[in-house]
Write a structure and sequence with these properties.
single chain; 451 residues; Double Stranded RNA Binding Domain; DNA polymerase, domain 1; 3 domains; 49% helix; elongated; disordered C terminus
């Protein structure tokens, strides 16, 4: 024994290809197709070839692997079959799995089939609400009553989180039943409707009207440069808040006006990499953030230390708080309402529905998704360019004269404003438009961005 060295192992790993290299005495170093490195001992028992996996590298190093191989050889000499003995020990242990151990086995076996975001979110759910309450319980002893108690306790805080825990825990217990870890699934005779009750009504998404949009632009001059630019980029690119908060500088090609959002980004529900064309004015807004660039690499780095969070990007609550503190004649809204607002205005600007859906990174659905599989990059560039131009004009107090607006929309809005109906179809406080236009024109940086 002793053909391999730590240096030769590292060299093999750098090659990045599947292989199997013998070290002697049956010990073999393997690299699988997915580039997982493991130690295997190959031997013969009762005349038949057998093998036993010792573990993965680097958790088990070369020295430890050789020591374990010596122990395996001693068992073989004593007439034992090490692979069979390991299987018996594993089955005996699996019968005594706790919920925590069961969850780890589920992630190990099913994780490769799931997206990294799904695994991360499921683990977060378990670590916060499931494992602290029932993690130490033996999986075979978990009762329907305990499941109901857990779900209803979480439901008091959040119905949606309780439903997600129901779905995740029931999947894990189904896996346990199929894997013979438990004999009976405690979810078998339970129905989510009986435990969770009726789903609470979902708040309807809000679309800011023209007067609200101009009011928002006026108030943004008072919230600080980083917050102002973040909200405008949210509006102009139609992304979800998490997609922007976790954006990194290397994702932006400001020369060509492209932002590439990775598939694993939190908030990217399509789970696919997609590109966002950036209008020149949006590129200008991104460049305004360059003085705040630091070693974290985030477009929106954390400006203040917070012991509660280890994240190096802007807090997930910052923009919510900023929006909550805005004045002006606006209804209460949240960052996600900016996305529905963008969708509404893209339709007002005459953009095609498929271009709008692709701009929001939505699937087109059914046969349309199959036969129109392109990302419509040029069409989206034109649509988002019009929308960005309208936003820029809104920020300068001249939205009613914007060239981005179709003439009939421009005429209708002017008639409504002149008639004093600043909010058709919804009710908001009245506002002095002359004051509003004056305040929206105060931002010199946006005047510069508009040329």
């Amino acid at each position: 024994m002793g053909r391999m060295t730590d240096a030769s192992i590292r060299k093999l790993l750098l090659e990045g290809r599947p292989l199997a290299i013998a070290d002697g005495e049956g010990l073999t170093f393997t690299i699988s197709n997915n580039l997982t490195a493991s130690w295997i001992v190959r031997y013969r028992y009762a005349g038949r070839p057998r093998e036993i996996t010792l573990g993965r590298w680097p958790q088990i190093g070369l020295k430890e692997a050789r020591l374990e191989t010596s122990r395996v050889r001693l068992d073989i000499a004593a007439g034992k079959d090490p692979a069979y003995e390991k299987k018996v020990r594993k089955e005996r242990k699996r019968g005594n799995f706790t919920i925590a151990e069961l969850f780890e086995e589920y992630v190990e076996h099913r994780g490769p089939e799931l997206s990294p975001v799904t695994v991360k979110n499921t683990r977060s759910l378990f670590e916060k609400d499931v494992l602290p309450r029932i993690g130490s319980r033996l999986a075979r002893d978990l009762t329907p009553q305990e499941v109901v108690g857990l779900i209803r306790t979480v439901k008091e805080r959040s119905h949606s989180v309780a439903r997600r825990i129901w779905e995740s825990l029931s999947t894990v217990m189904s896996y346990a039943c199929a894997s013979s870890v438990i004999d009976e699934n405690p979810f078998r005779n339970l129905k989510p409707s009986a435990v969770l009750g009726k789903k609470p009504s979902v708040r309807k998404r809000l679309q800011l009207t023209p007067i609200e949009l101009m009011s928002l632009c006026a108030e943004l001059n008072e919230v600080g440069l980083v917050n102002r630019v973040a909200i405008l980029i949210l509006l102009a690119t139609c992304v979800r808040k998490s997609e922007l908060l976790e954006a990194r500088w290397e994702e932006f090609d400001l020369r060509t006006g492209i932002w590439t959002v990775p598939a694993a980004r939190r908030g990217n529900k399509a789970r696919r990499e997609y590109t966002i064309p950036l209008a020149p004015i949006v590129v200008g807004w991104v460049r305004e953030l360059e003085p705040f660039r630091n070693e974290s690499g985030y477009l929106l780095p954390r400006q203040a230390r917070n012991w509660r969070s280890s994240a190096k990007h802007m807090s997930r609550t910052t923009l919510n708080v900023v929006i909550k503190r805005l004045g002006g004649p606006m209804r209460d809204f949240c960052p996600h309402d900016l996305r529905s607002t963008a969708r509404s205005y893209l339709r007002t600007l005459g953009c095609r529905d498929d271009v709008i859906e692709r701009s929001l990174n939505h699937s087109l659905g059914g046969l349309t998704e199959i036969y129109q599989a392109g990302d419509l990059i040029e069409e989206r560039r034109e649509a988002l360019g019009l929308w960005a131009e309208l936003l820029g004009d809104a920020h300068l107090g001249r939205m009613l004269e914007s060239r981005a607006l179709p003439p009939f929309i421009q005429k209708r809005w002017k008639e409504e404003f002149n008639a004093g109906d600043s909010q058709p179809e919804t009710t908001t406080p009245t506002v002095d438009l002359s004051d509003l236009f004056g305040r929206t024109a105060q931002s010199a940086s946006f005047a510069a961005s508009n040329g």
